[in-house]
Amino acid sequence: MFVFEGEKQERQYLHVFLDRLSVNIDRIEIAWCTHIYNLHKNLKDDLGLDTFELLKEECSALSLEGYGRDDIARIYLFFDYDGHVPMADNEVIKEMLEIFDNETDKGKLLLSYPMLEALADNNSDLNFKDITTRIELGGDYKKLPLLSLKKLKELSLSDFGCLVGKHLKKANFLVNGQYENPDSLIEQHDIFNAQLTKHINPNKEVAVLSALPLFYLDYKGVSALTSLN
């Protein structure tokens, strides 16, 4: 199961992403339709509630009709950092990353900085590992000159693989100081702690990073990265 913060655009990015990388997954897609802090509030209100049951109750997702928890093998939750919203709280993010750290249990939370659409940030004037954005910019980030979904579809497979690889190398650089393909999985809490230490706390910014490439690493493993270059 794939859970998105938004109703439409994030799913479109996922579809392009999976199609370009030839990743075939039987899946259900639903939208939470609000930011991560409201998800946290719902969990706090009912700590014993299973993630699947919470989603079924709160999202009124017709796509979940007829399904039970045992029918769902993995749950991936794609949310944006959303450090600009009034409810923003870095301690909440830490707690959420601890709760949602296993896709076969409560689910795996994959954070994008500042949002999932960062996949399309291909600013040729800067070294990608150095691209950051101000937290206060919030949702206006998507108004920057990002690659459109149409452009992403038109990229050669080689160029698309390089684009995905940039995010994985950047995550590795953030956590391990090496701008190269990671040789092991990179945990979401390690990425967040690095963002917090190097960007969020000192500069009120985040290093631009989409969760989709990190999902690919998590799902396919390190050995699959050779096909991106």
User: Low-confidence runs (pLDDT<50, min 5 residues)?
Assistant: none
Tell me the span between the first and last alpha carbons: 29 Å
Structural class by secondary-structure content: alpha/beta
Sequence of secondary-structure elements: EHEHHEHEEEHHHEH
Strand arrangement in the largest pleated sheet: 2-1-3-5-4
Largest sheet: 5 strands, mixed
Instruction: Compute the average pLDDT.
Output: 86
Number of domains: 1
Structural shape: globular
Radius of gyration: 17 Å
Helix content: 40-55%
Number of helices: 8
Please tally the β strands and state the result.
7
Relative strand content: 5-15%
Give an overview in words.
With 229 residues, this protein is α/β, with parallel strands linked by helices. It has one domain (2-228). The chain has eight helices and seven strands; from the N terminus they run βαβααβαβββαααβα. The strands form two sheets. It has a five-stranded mixed β-sheet. Strands 6-7 form a two-stranded antiparallel ribbon. Helix 4 runs antiparallel to helix 7.
Which helices and strands, and how do they pair?
Layout: E1 2-4, H1 9-20, E2 29-31, H2 36-45, H3 51-59, E3 76-80, H4 90-99, E4 101-102, E5 107-112, E6 132-134, H5 149-154, H6 157-176, H7 188-203, E7 205-207, H8 211-220
Parallel strand pairs: 1-2, 1-3, 3-5
Antiparallel strand pairs: 4-5, 6-7
Helix pairs in contact: 4-7, 6-8
